[in-house]
């Protein structure tokens, strides 16, 4: 049922508390005066949370004494969807009272009650001015309130003078910070070739910020330093320290999603640099995720948390921060949702043991991992192939290697370069296994190295080259 109508997709996003509030809203006259719409909702409530009935079964559950009419069901579902959308707006107003206040100001002004509207706006403006503006949403609100206040002054003929500067200043802060945030996202997306990066727009924006000295506003300074770090033309390591200092100073006043977005954009940049072999990028990528951990913005954020934790573990292992990672794995076991905790613990522990040459222990951990997505399964299988290689276990090595190649050939969601780099790894490691464990093999380290050098896409290139170095030493 959940794939047939948007209503079910919307309903599945509600938490248990939201569901209870929505139930109370629907059955009230405020939610909908339409009796049949309420009746349909009560039938859906009996299916919550999986909504497993088909359309005809749902209709009969709601209206047991009436013949099934698909057209009527569609109309009622659309009515209920509108009710749900209204409820979601009410939830946003409940969670964000500042929006409620802004709407009140507009309502008062529209009703010619501008004096009261201005008193509310002025009081809030003073509150905003009393602290540094570090959040784009607050910057936007500051501009809105300054504009409302100016509008009142222009209509108040008793006012001796009108001061435009607060509106213009708040507008400059909001628009330049927003522009830089947009440019940061465009550059970090990785879908724009280097030759097509927004160089001109970036230079104009940075020059405008410097000319007006807007970098004094923390919300502008944050994106000013971030843009310098993300754009290859302006990249300067000094901006990392300045950005980090701002985030640590103001992180409690910034919306958590914004801090996560800022450090996430930087992490993507350094991970991309890491793939291109740029020195220092491994440590910088680790620092981004570790920064989220130190700011208490790592756990409790759904899918973002899962991916960030996996990246932090992987990068920490590559940096050989073994003791810290071991403690962190125990922490993740306690803090992550149950359906992910054991998988991440065992997969991370396997990587940790592998890097310390404890291959049997690593294999035991991997065999306890349960897969929940194709990417995770592939990462697990790649590591398991490396373990079989190190242990010289021929049959499971060749079987799993062939299985991974077949799996990649069947996948249509993965990009071609992603699949190619992993299939190349399987092929090269197959040659390396023969050269290492079969005394009659025609494969040699120089032949394999020549293949590696000609490959554009190859994961774990450094590890492969290290194994080739070891093979050459053994043969000589």
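^ Assign residues to that structure.
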């Amino acid at each position: 049922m959940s794939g047939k109508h948007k209503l079910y997709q919307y309903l599945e996003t509600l938490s248990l508390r939201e569901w209870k509030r929505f139930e109370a809203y629907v059955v009230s006259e405020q939610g909908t005066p339409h009796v049949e719409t309420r009746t349909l909702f009560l039938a859906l409530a009996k299916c919550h949370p999986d909504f497993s009935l088909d359309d005809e079964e749902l209709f009969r559950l709601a209206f047991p004494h009436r013949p099934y009419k698909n057209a009527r069901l569609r109309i009622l579902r659309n009515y209920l969807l509108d009710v749900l959308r209204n409820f979601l707006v009410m939830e946003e107003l409940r969670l964000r009272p500042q929006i409620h206040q802004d709407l009140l100001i507009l309502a008062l002004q529209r009703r010619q009650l501008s004096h009261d509207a201005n008193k509310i706006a002025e009081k809030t403006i003073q509150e905003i001015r009393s602290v540094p503006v570090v959040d784009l949403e607050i910057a936007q609100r500051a501009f809105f309130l300054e504009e409302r206040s100016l509008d009142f002054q222009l209509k108040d003929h008793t006012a001796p003078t009108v001061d435009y500067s607060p509106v213009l200043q708040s507008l400059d802060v909001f628009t330049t910070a927003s522009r830089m945030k947009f440019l940061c996202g465009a550059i970090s997306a990785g879908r724009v070739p280097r030759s097509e990066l927004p160089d001109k727009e970036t230079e104009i924006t940075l020059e405008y910020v410097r000319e007006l000295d807007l970098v004094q506003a923390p919300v502008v300074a944050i994106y000013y330093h971030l843009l310098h770090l993300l754009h290859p033309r302006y990249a300067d390591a000094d901006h990392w320290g300045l950005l980090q200092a701002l985030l640590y100073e103001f992180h409690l006043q910034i919306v958590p999603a914004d801090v996560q977005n800022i450090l996430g954009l930087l992490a993507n940049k350094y991970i991309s640099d890491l793939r291109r072999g740029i020195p220092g990028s491994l440590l910088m990528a680790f620092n981004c995720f570790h920064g989220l951990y130190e700011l208490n913005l790592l756990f409790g954020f759904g899918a973002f948390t899962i991916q960030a934790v996996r990246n932090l573990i992987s990068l920490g292992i590559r940096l050989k921060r073994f003791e810290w990672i071991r403690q962190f794995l125990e922490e993740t076991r306690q803090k992550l949702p149950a359906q992910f905790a054991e998988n991440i613990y065992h997969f991370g522990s396997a990587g940790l043991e592998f890097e310390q040459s404890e291959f049997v222990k690593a294999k035991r951990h991997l065999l306890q991992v349960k897969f929940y997505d194709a990417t995770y399964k592939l990462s697990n299988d790649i590591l398991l192939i490396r373990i079989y290689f190190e242990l010289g276990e021929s049959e499971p090595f060749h079987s799993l290697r062939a299985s991974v190649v077949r799996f990649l050939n069947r996948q249509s969601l993965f990009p071609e370069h992603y699949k190619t780099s992993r299939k190349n790894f399987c092929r090269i490691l197959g040659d390396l296994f023969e050269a290492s464990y079969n005394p009659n093999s025609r494969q040699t380290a120089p032949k394999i190295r020549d293949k590696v050098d000609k490959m554009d896409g190859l994961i774990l290139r450094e590890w492969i080259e290290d194994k080739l170095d070891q093979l050459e030493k053994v043969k000589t």
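The two ends are 66 Å apart (CA to CA).
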